[in-house]
Amino acid sequence: MASMGVDAEQEPLLGDLTPGSREWDIIETEEHYKSRWISIRILYLTMFLSSVGFSIVIMSIWPYLQKIDQTADASFLGWVIASFSLGQMVASPIFGLWSNYRPRKEPLIVSIFISVTANCLYAYVHVPASHNKYYMLIARGLVGFGAASTDEAQVPQGNIDQVAVVATNVLFFVVLFIFALFETIVTPLTMDMYAWTREQAVLYNGIILAVLGVESVIIFMGVKLLSKKIGERAILLGGLIVVWVGFFILLPWGNQFPKIQWEDLHNNSIPNTFGEIIIAFWKSPREDHNEEPTGCPIEQAWCLYIPMIHLAQFLTSAALIGVGYPSCNVMSYTLYSKILGPKPQGVYMGWLTASGSAARILGPVFISQLYTSWGPRWAFSLVCGVVVLTILLLLVVYKRLVAFSVRHGRIQE
């Protein structure tokens, strides 16, 4: 009886999908159908709770890092955020292989245990006397390791347009890359530009993220109806254009500068004469050092010559990216699934997951290094360039991004 339970647990969710089997012709039984939807609803709840936890952490990670280790800068923040996806990417094939040969509950229980342990470590990284930022790096990597997917690897099917598959993976990579770098830089950017304290940054950015979440839900429902009229490819193209506009608006313009941290300098009042320097030096000891320093750190040289990004610019940009990202995200998944066709998609979906994890590794590192060294103008200009290249790629492969059934003449597009 025990062996039967193990065999049932290792059975594919839709039954034995091999040629000649009953499920191969019928697709799935009523029992399998009910079981599948129970599993799907559990996954919905799991993903919801996981996303809530991730959102809470991502908005507070920069102030937390600054508080526990004064030596950490924005470039190190990129590595901390990237470590989550790195751990996830490393663990996914391990747990996937494990679940192929053992009951699925084993890797699931282990991943949950690692996640709980890693989050406890994250909560207490402030306790050690030194090297706290490295403890945070390890903790976030372990959290990602515990959050790894346990999708089963299925046998890939033939007769698939491999060019369309590769192109969709690249498109999905860029979509995740763009959003990963945006959510990474939001907190440092607002603290630098608007002289927000850590508490203000967590609160205000949390509110902004919540609004974007509501906006995304509306977009998800809207694109489902819109895709029936204009198709997934057109929505993906439109989403990328909206994202480009969002980042273009985020480019700094004008002649107003951010408040400089550590110095009694405000906007355009950069000391040019000996007298102004003496006045700044005289005022600085009289400041209340119990207050948290705010503004753009003087260590970032670009703070002295790059204009500030106005709050209206930032909010408009966030709203546009909040429209473009969910549109591109859901259409990438939809197109990819349709390109692969009706047969098992495990291996190909594994590649898509890997490309998304790679994007979440490289995006935070890319933006944090550029932002710290060169400022928002260079950083967001390069992002705009990446989006333009992605749009060109989509236009080149546009006619190949069609459903498996359409390509093979089973239905008309």
UniProtKB/TrEMBL annotation:
It is found in: Endomembrane system. The chain crosses the membrane at residues 42-64, 76-96, 108-127, 163-182, 202-223, 235-254, 314-336, 348-372, 378-398. One of its GO terms (cellular component) is lysosomal membrane. Gene3D superfamilies: MFS general substrate transporter like domains. PANTHER family: INNER MEMBRANE TRANSPORT PROTEIN YAJR, MAJOR FACILITATOR SUPERFAMILY DOMAIN-CONTAINING PROTEIN 8. It is a multi-pass membrane protein. It comes from the Eukaryota. This is Major facilitator superfamily domain containing 8.
